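Record 1 of the preview.
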Amino acid sequence: MARSNDTVAGMLTTLRSGAAAVLLTACLSLSACGSDDGDKAETSGTKTETTAEATPKLNEYPTELTDEYTKSCVPSAVNSSNGKLTEDDAGVICQNTLECIQKELTSDEFIQTSTKMMSGEENPGAKTFTDCATEAGKNFKK
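->
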């Protein structure tokens, strides 16, 4: 699907304004990221492999959107972790969070959800963001 430069610019502005920080803060505030809880899956800083019979297809997002998400998410995760996460650790969590979101939301839904989260509006996509961030944190063990 072709997008106008204005649409991509709007997506990037949304991400720059802190949507990634919102969802990573949710994850970290639940003390899920980098936890030593015995019930957490151990990944040694790598992406979690799933053994599900059918892996859902990821919705395609524009490269500019995923790049900007990562640029915003990684430093936000590192800062929110109070020194518990390195940039590499945060990169793994951010990537796993994004892949989870891509299974559930189209890029347009992602943008709408991000925008509504930043403005404080109630929206169903916010649950996907927080669930994915929480899951990514639980599946990560330093």
